[in-house]
Amino acid sequence: MELIGDVKTYEWGKLGLDSEVAKLAQLNSVKFTAVEGTPYSEFWMGDHPSGPSLLKDTSQELGAFIAENADSANGSMKSLPFLFKVLSIRKALSVQVHPNKEEAERLHAEHPDIYKDANHKPELAIALTTFRALCGFRPLAEIQGLCKKFEPLMQLIGPEIIENLESNTPESLKLCYSKLMTSAQDDITKCIETIRDDAKHQEELEACGLKDIFATLYKDFPNDVGILSIFFLNVINLKPGQAIFLAAKEPHAYLEGDCLECMACSDNVIRAGLTPKFKDIHTLIETLNYNGEPAEKKLFQSAKIDDLELFVPPVKDFSVGKIHIPITNTFYQMRHSKYASILLVLDGEAIIKTRDSGCYLEFYRKSEADNFTAYMAMYNFF
Ligand SMILES: [Zn+2]
Asked: Which reaction does it catalyse (predicted)?
């Protein structure tokens, strides 16, 4: 059955039809018209109560439909275990981390007003356009090198704490990052402004490939401690089709571009900067994974099974498959599953049909596309 996705207009979204979200929403529903200048940030596909998809035929909420038809439609599960989204980012999202399941349950029990969800939120992001993110701590030697290069940062954190990174232990990084995150705002402001105003530091930023990111973050979030995250976290530039996986405890921030995101059905975020929202610094510091790793290691590798390119993260809540085939194939046999899947078509047109052997896609000859491209979110692939 066809779904109508839920469109979010958070302030950080790309504007009007620059946004992949707006383009998709317009193709998805005749009732949607993109308005110039409006930010279109997220397109939700799933049954999360904060943005449920609707059945196109009846306008029933997907969650209600699945609950009523769990046996036939979703392997007896009363709700979808995953949430599938498209994000269009003009302005950085907050530096954040997601708790693991145990911590999510504890946080929800202790602070239900802030942590409204008791589920964990591992995320997989696949770039649809050139996509930039901060992801995981840099190797400790790299962080030390950057702190030594930028004297104001060294002064803010303290030379001894920076020297201590030499031990290459998670504890030394925890001490360093918590010093940064708990510094007084006046000191943070002074550090950021000195780096901004000093010609030598600007040259150094340029040499490290961080000048544009620094300037953009400064413009959007002046003097926010999150700007200094660029010296601690890996900067990852994804080409369309490349992916990163954000496991529990992995600090990250999406900076710009369009991506597809699949996650466990949850909204559980601990924020640490680049946001006017509540920052829970104490929980953040205790939650993070302090093992530094080089940027190259952060790329998530897909596997190919027949025509399907598979992204299978180490959690059972979801996998994502990419179908990319010439429409001269006329039809495509889908993998059989008793659980509900969501298929997002990006190129080409197809009708989904069923027969004894399961579902298959039949391609429209009238489609202008040479290839059919779609991403499918599914539960429990293996
Ligand atoms: Zn996240």
From this structure: D-mannose 6-phosphate = D-fructose 6-phosphate
